[in-house]
Write a structure and sequence with these properties.
The protein starts with a strand and ends with a helix. The protein has two domains: about 120 residues, Rossmann fold; about 100 residues, Arc Repressor Mutant, subunit A. The protein has a five-stranded parallel beta sheet, sandwiched between helices. Strands 6-7-8-9 form a four-stranded antiparallel beta sheet, with helices on one face. The radius of gyration is 20 Å and the shape is elongated. It is an alpha/beta fold. β4, α4 and β5 form a beta-alpha-beta unit. The chain has nine helices and twelve strands. The structure holds calcium ion (CA). Calcium ion (CA) binds next to loops.
Length: about 230
């Protein structure tokens, strides 16, 4: 499957860089435009699969970009997620009226944005993102919201589900508590690091039912990693 192309139209350089970094890490092909005019040109040139569009942009505003995309036959079906500041509540509604598929209010967590991108793409072109992925004998179905281990269904709470979903996107990688907090709870929420331990504990317990081996390794003073040894795979 070819890479999904994301065009980010954002004039705030630090945010654009952060978006580029995180979206590339998720496997997207990312390009960035720094103003509305450039953004419109890039859409024509690159025909992205999805556009992440900031509301406040120099030259041509985000809402005008959205309007123009929707008015052209060649671009009217490209999904758009708008980025708005908290104070722009009324504008946000106008943004959706103009044809944006979704919106995110700044500040937002990257994992939330990634989840929204995938949801929008899934809605628009089913089959483009991985609805189901597996790791060893663990299988996660993101659409049906179900987890199975060795073909047996496992019931998880919403937080445990998101934790597992995140860790399954990077099996073997060691995540610090902070990284898991940012990815699952969002960076703008204050949650104690110990909360992560509690939810990891629940996830572990749920995944280890029916005598299955614990698939989450505690890495001393570092965090957690999803790992299956050959033994636990069997
Ligand atoms: Ca801006």
């Amino acid at each position: 499957m070819s890479q999904t192309k994301v065009l980010v139209i954002e004039d705030e350089e630090s945010l654009a860089t952060l978006l580029e970094y995180n979206l590339e890490r998720e496997g997207f092909a990312v390009s960035v435009a720094g103003d509305g005019e450039e953004g419109l040109l890039r859409v024509e040139e690159e025909t992205p699969d999805i556009v992440i569009l900031d509301w406040m942009l120099p030259k041509v505003t985000g809402i005008e970009v959205c309007r123009r995309l929707r008015s052209r036959a060649s671009t009217k079906n490209i999904p758009v997620i708008m980025l708005t500041a908290r104070s722009e509540e009324a504008d946000r509604i106008r943004g959706l009226d103009t044809g944006a598929d979704d919106y995110m209010t700044k500040p937002f967590s990257m994992s939330e944005l990634v989840a929204r991108i995938k949801a929008v793409l899934r809605r628009i072109r089913p089959g483009l993102t991985d609805d189901i992925s597996s790791f060893g004998d663990i299988e996660i179905d993101r659409v049906a919201h179900k987890v199975r281990r060795a073909k047996k269904e496992i019931h998880l709470g919403p937080t445990e589900f998101r934790l597992l979903d995140h860790m399954m996107q990077h099996p073997g990688r060691v995540f610090s508590r902070e990284q898991l907090l940012n990815a699952v709870w969002g960076s703008d929420v204050y949650v104690e690091a110990r909360t992560v331990d509690v939810h990891i504990g629940r996830l572990r317990k749920a995944l280890s039912r029916h005598g299955a081996k614990n698939p989450i390794r505690t890495v001393r003073s570092a965090g957690y990693a999803l790992e299956l040894t050959d033994e636990s795979r069997a």
